[in-house]
């Protein structure tokens, strides 16, 4: 079978067998066959027996920060494979897990002292929410069984995280009635640069405080994505809002859970987005870029006070235990990824990317049908006035040598940090020209 036949065969078998994310089995979105990847580029079957290269402007959904086939990360995996690939974490431990936990405690805000490793970001949110509930039970507050969050958020696709995603404009409205009914405050006013005394921000804070006060006896924790709401709309908001949330949590005895799965490890310009506000959480979730995109791994960190309270409370343990918790391969590559990131002037690299995205996407703001163009750190977003034609927009950008995955009304990029200035310029031009073509 020639290459064209092999490609058609694989894609046909894929269509018959596989469900892709947020895709119909009977009317699936088009898929493309990846035949290789190197650096920041994917090699894709071109449908004519050959291949085309495209810059992965998604960093494979925001995690592949060091690119593909990175020799340092490759070697970390090979070295660990030669020792052992997996071992249960119940009753056993291993050096990569211990070292990674130490590293995370050193890097994250000082109050966070204890680490629970998870399979994925969504699971880390599950664990964080369970921990908050156990904490309140241990404090004798058994009626505190709900979470307070803000509209516009996204925290994952498993059941507990779905319940704190936006219930109206999110992706999980079909499950209304089956999910735990949480407490939702207003979405923070848009704009990273808003000051604390901005009238819209002051009004938002007042409404948020009212919502918290009305349900204070029921709320165990506040959970939010700090500074940038990701899959809910690539929506940046002011650090002052995060400080308000910390104040409200302290006033009513809620825990503050920060979901940094998308924003951690430099994406917004600080190592963790909460640093923009100088706010320390009680519980922190990290994932995605933790392993440089090589393997699925996430972590939930908490303060010593939270850990002691739960450990001394009913049950005497945090009631969770994934099979692949602290997988040695994942922990080893995570250590290498963190060292690789911090071993360079990563902030200068993020600033470089941010400047390049702002320059490259600026012309899109003048196009018909464009509502907004925004950049924060290594995140560039073009928001349209209406829904994106996903197949058409994807094709248009890909013809210009760039892979993106638009959603709702957004064409956006969260590129690998190892993109060159030329790569970033290509991404900006491709997105802008594709939007112009679609008008």
Description:
- It is built from 13 helices and 16 strands.
- The protein is of the alpha/beta class.
- It has two domains: 53-61 and 345-438, Alpha-Beta Complex (Aspartate Aminotransferase, domain 1), CATH 3.90.1150; 72-343, 3-Layer(aba) Sandwich (Aspartate Aminotransferase, domain 2), CATH 3.40.640.
- Strands 4-12-11-10-7-5-6 form a seven-stranded mixed sheet, with helices on both faces. The chain has a four-stranded mixed sheet with strand order 1-2-3-15. Strands 13-14-16 form a three-stranded antiparallel sheet.
- The mean pLDDT is 95.
- The two termini are 41 Å apart.
- One of its GO terms (molecular function) is pyridoxal phosphate binding.
Structural topology:
Elements: H1 3-17, E1 34-38, E2 41-45, E3 51-56, H2 59-62, H3 71-81, H4 95-107, E4 112-118, H5 121-138, E5 146-150, H6 159-163, E6 183-185, H7 199-214, E7 219-224, E8 228-229, E9 235-236, H8 239-252, E10 255-259, E11 283-286, E12 298-303, H9 304-311, H10 328-342, H11 346-361, E13 370-376, E14 379-384, H12 390-398, E15 402-403, E16 410-413, H13 421-438
Parallel strand pairs: 3-15, 5-6, 5-7, 7-10, 10-11
Antiparallel strand pairs: 1-2, 2-3, 4-12, 8-9, 11-12, 13-14, 14-16
Structural classification: alpha/beta
Mean pLDDT: 95
Task: State the CATH topology of the largest domain.
Answer: Aspartate Aminotransferase, domain 2
Number of self-contained structural domains? 2
**Regions with pLDDT < 50 over 5+ consecutive residues?**
none
> Largest sheet, described in full?
7 strands, mixed
State the name of the first-level CATH class of the largest domain: Alpha Beta
Supply the number of helical segments. 13
CATH architecture grouping of the largest domain = 3-Layer(aba) Sandwich
Query: How much helix is in the residues?
Result: 25-40%
